[in-house]
Structure formats: C-alpha cells, structure tokens
Amino acid sequence: MLVLQDIRDHKERIIEALKKRNLDADALINQVIEADARRRAIQTELDQNRNEANSIGKQVGQLQREGRKDEAQILMQKSAALKESIKQLTDQLRETEEQLRELLLTIPNAPAALVKPGKSADDNEIVATWGDPATLPDDALPHWEIAKKLDIIDFELGVKVTGSGFPVYKGKGARLQRALINYFLDYNTRAGYQEVQPPHFVNEASGFGTGQLPDKEGQMYYIEKDQLYAIPTAEVPVTNFYRDVILMEGELPHKLTAYTPCFRREAGSYGAHVRGLNRLHQFDKVEIVVISHPERSYALLDEMVEHVAGLLRSLGLTYRILRLCGGDMGFASAMTYDFEVWSAAQKRWLEVSSVSNFESFQANRLQLRFKDGDGRNRLCHTLNGSSLALPRVVAALLENNFDGQRVHLPEVLHSYTGFTAID
RNA sequence: GGUGAGGUGGGUGAGAGGCUUAAACCAACAGUUUGCUAAACUGUCGUACCCGAUAGGGUACCGGGGGUUCGAAUCCCCCCCUCACCGCCA
C-alpha cells in the first residue's frame, strides 16, 4: 500500500511512475486526494464535537458534586444533541476511511526511476547474461524424459496420491533435492543471512501483510476449518515476523533465509509450458528476506542480485538477468530483477529467481518501522528473492548436463549429494 | 477435546463509574557529578490522526466489536487470543 503522505507530497511524481505500469494513474490518484481531503474535514469537525462533549461531561460531574442539579440538567440536554451529531460524523468518518483504504489497496506500488515503461515480458531489459546457450547440447532430452529414464522423479505416483503438480522424487532425485536445499542454505548463511524455519501455514492477517490478500486469494490453498492458508512462498511467514514491529535503526538490516515447500493452486495453467517441473502445485524453495533502512535498500538489492548470480555461476548454469518493465512487475514491487536459466532441451529461458525491492509498500501494510536518530518511527524497506527455487534449477541441471547415460553434477554439490553423477 | 486463569505503555504491574493528564517500579535516552566505568541526582520518555508557519492545541486508543450512562480501562453482551492443568499424541 502506498503511503498516503507520499501521495499528498509527491502527487505528480507518483502519477508519472504509475503510468509505467499502463495505469490511468491521474484518475486514481485524484480520487485518493479527494477522499483524503473529505476525511480530514470530517475528522476536524468530529474532534471539535467530541471536545465539547467531554467538557460538558466534566462540568456535569462538577455541578452534581456541588448539588446544583438544575444547571446540570440543562447541560445534559445539550449533550444529547451533540451525541447525535457525533454519531453521524463517526459513521461518515468510518465510511470515508473505508473508501480511501479500498482505493489505496487497488493501487500497485510506484515503479522506481530505473524501471522502464512497458506492457509485457517483451519489454523487460536484459541487464546481464552469463554463459552461452549455444554451447549446450543441441539434441538434449527434456528433463521429464531424463527423469523417467533415470527413475528419479515419478509424476504419475504423485498424481495417484495427490494430483498433478505434486511430483514424487526418488533415490538420487530425492537426494539431489536435499543436497540443493542444504547447499543453498549454507551459501546464504555464509553471506550473513540468518537461517529460520517458519510455519508452512499462515493466518489471514499474514496473507494481508505481504499483499497476497486480497489480490491473490484464489492462488493459495486454504484450510477452511482452521482458517489457514498454505504458504505460496516463505516470504509470507518470514516477512510477517516483522508485522507491528519497531526496530532500532542500528540493528538494520535484518537478513534472513528460509527453506520451505511452496504451495500454489496455479488455477488455469495447462499445456506444454507446464510439463514436468516447469510449473508445480508444490515445490521447494530457499528464500532470502531483507529488512532495510530506506536509504540502503537499493544497495542491498544490488547485493542480493550479485548473491544470487554467484550461486547460479557456482552451479555452472547459463543464465540471464532481466530488469522487469513496469507492466510485468508484481503488484507490490518497486523494482524487480528476474533470473532465468537456459533449458537446453526446451530451448527457452526458465525463471528460477525473482529479487525485488518493495520499498515501503509492504512495510506500510505490516506497520514495520524503525526508530531513527530523532526518535521518530519511520517505515522500513522490505526486499526478498529466491535463492533459489528448486524445480527449474533441477530441470536445467538435468537437461544441460546429460550425456545420454548420466547427469553430471556440478562440483559444489558433490559433498552434499555423496555422488558426482546420476545414472 | 475438558477445566480454570488472564489480556493495561518497551517490560513488570496498580487502577473496580467523575480527583487518571493511566500510579509506581524497571528498562531506555539526555544532563549534572566524575581519571574511566559504575553509582547517585535531575529531567525526558506510548501510538495514530486533526488544526497550526512555529510555539502549541485537540481527538482517539487499556485484546477486538457492540451496548448502558451526561460521563466507561472500570458495568453488560458477543468474539478473538494467551497461559496453566487434565486427556490424547510425534
């Protein structure tokens, strides 16, 4: 949620930024300004009325103690009229506040200055590429066939016990999953991220805090009996650790990493692009979350991007980094970098990580603040990224490193897997 | 699942219709004193919003929502959460 004060102070700048998302920002922002002005007028009048009512109440008590019943009686009548007016104004205030809030909830984050305008993924900027797709096997098998051949992933068994999109990893495939998770966590903790194990279900307030609710309600699994959502990413529970928290300026930044399974309904996604490991209802991911001082968040974003890039290089995967255009960014993000690895068999790039700076957009909803040098409470900035999501990394590892007999694993994984190849 | 006890500022915790502007203590911060640290003393010390150029003034908030009353942290109703014990259980 955008900060109302910012809209008041920098109306034009915010409108221009939102236009990069192809929004009719003028109309939206003007509605906000208008509702805000209305709200303040009501509040001022209400406060005056209440002030009067309070002072009458005190006078009545005083008069009654002094035994001046008649005078007290007159004041009590006056109070009745005020009470009615207060009731009306309170209703109006609540209504206006609700309108304003609903309006603000529909407005996505304002893209940062570096973000280019654009309509779709075609307008994203490629900011870096590592490796060369042309050097990878030209006749590669798709990963689902390799996985079947080596008997390391059983999609049908998953369908039997649960449904499509819930694969079963077997033997060296299962061990590879565990190795990747451990390697990613170790890599992250070495860089100063504190490892945490959050719950895999969250309550409604948490879903709201990071912005999944109300926008993406249909994308999450919901357990009605206990009113809990299965997490779509560790971002949700971990960032919500900080809901309603006021940190000391000196303890920023907080850097956390967590492994969790992620659950996504992915309603309406079918076809060739979702075969195999490309899109699942349950998958494993190691996430990094950073709580930052507002003046440091973009430096930290760069640091996170370099961190993830280093991880991909260590795995020997050909990748590229995109800075998303305004039209392709998520609702809450001010700037997002996507990482894509090359899939040799599918001849396309697969997204394995998305690293974003949300600036104060989430912090405003979460009421996550820090106390600055002047003793003022200011909103933090929040950031997060995948480091990394497993399935597409596995897909690329299988396809790019298969020699017809076995899949050769990158050296960094050997000590984690206990073997150097899958055969 | 059963029974009971509770939710008050950063923490502990008093307050039981108007003398509350929420006591007191602890923590924190600033100052005085001081070789340094500590101690002592003095002062500051919740959040949000509104009015105001500033100084300052006002309103709301005692888990949440309703109600009674001229007036509610305090009385009534509903809900939520936490803790303890019992039962079950990895």
TrEMBL record:
Molecular functions per Gene Ontology: ATP binding; serine-tRNA ligase activity
Binding-site residues, ATP: R264, R265, E266, E351, V352, S353, S354
Binding locations of L-serine: T233, R264, E287, N384
Regions crossing the membrane: none
EC class: ligase
Cited InterPro entries: aa-tRNA-synt_IIb (IPR002314), aa-tRNA-synth_II (IPR006195), aa-tRNA-synth_II/BPL/LPL (IPR045864), Ser-tRNA-ligase_type_1 (IPR002317), Ser-tRNA-synth_1_N (IPR015866), SerRS_1_N_sf (IPR042103), SerRS_core (IPR033729), tRNA-bd_arm (IPR010978)
PROSITE patterns named in the record: AA_TRNA_LIGASE_II
A Pfam family of this chain: tRNA-synt_2b
Chain segments annotated as coiled-coil in the UniProt record: 46-106
Top-level lineage group: Bacteria
Domain Aminoacyl-transfer RNA synthetases class-II family profile: 139-410
A biological process from GO: seryl-tRNA aminoacylation
Subcellular location as annotated: Cytoplasm
SUPFAM superfamilies linked: Class II aaRS and biotin synthetases, tRNA-binding arm
The enzyme's E.C. designation: 6.1.1.11
UniProt pathway: Aminoacyl-tRNA biosynthesis; selenocysteinyl-tRNA(Sec) biosynthesis; L-seryl-tRNA(Sec) from L-serine and tRNA(Sec): step 1/1
Reactions catalysed according to its record: tRNA(Sec) + L-serine + ATP = L-seryl-tRNA(Sec) + AMP + diphosphate + H(+); tRNA(Ser) + L-serine + ATP = L-seryl-tRNA(Ser) + AMP + diphosphate + H(+)
Keyword tags: Aminoacyl-tRNA synthetase, ATP-binding, Coiled coil, Cytoplasm, Ligase, Nucleotide-binding, Protein biosynthesis
Cellular component terms (Gene Ontology): cytoplasm
Family according to the record: Belongs to the class-II aminoacyl-tRNA synthetase family. Type-1 seryl-tRNA synthetase subfamily.
NCBIfam families: serS (TIGR00414)
Protein name: Serine--tRNA ligase
